[in-house]
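Table S2 (text version). Query chain:
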Amino acid sequence: MNADRYRTLGGRSAGIHRMLASKFIGYAFPIPNEEAFRTEAERIAKEHPTARHHCYGWVLDNTGGRFRASDDGEPNGTAGKPILRQLQALDLTYCAVVVVRYFGGTLLGKPGLIHAYGETARLALAEASIIERVVMERWTLECGYDRFDVVKSDILLNEGIVVECTFTERCSVEFELPIGHLPVLEAKWGLLGIRVAPR
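Corresponding structure-token output:
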């Protein structure tokens, strides 16, 4: 992954795979954090209360450095890892795949399970839109009311986002900028007596 950009899913998607009477349903979706993953995984589990297994893989962080996989009762390494490999093969982060399995009565063996879970994840991801996002950094600053419009304009012109503003005796601005964009603005704002701090 590039240091200033990452690839993720633009929305939810699903895929179905059948193998020897077992039915595998894969759900791919973007997540901002682990809590969001747990919420979505619980929702999927409620949709499929009679499914034998709910296996998953997820990836987080701008570089994809945080990840987890679960076999949920399947033999070790036969479900979560094949799912996770599909996410990593596409260089994706901030997203997850959950695969639910309805057991068809025939044991698939380890090679069969590895294929089935990996293929279901692949099918779900094949239906997804993949987007590229810019890595953002969050900062905060204070300025006088006379400087606020200039600050806001500078942030927006540099592909930034104004997250929150508080207006008391002075203006307090929380904002995000694409990584590497701050030094130019710091130089300009420094001349106006505006100091920036990390959030």
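Notes on Table S2: Helices lie at 34-47, 80-89, 109-126, 145-157, 182-191. The domain at 5-132 is CATH 3.30.230.30 (Ribosomal Protein S5; domain 2).
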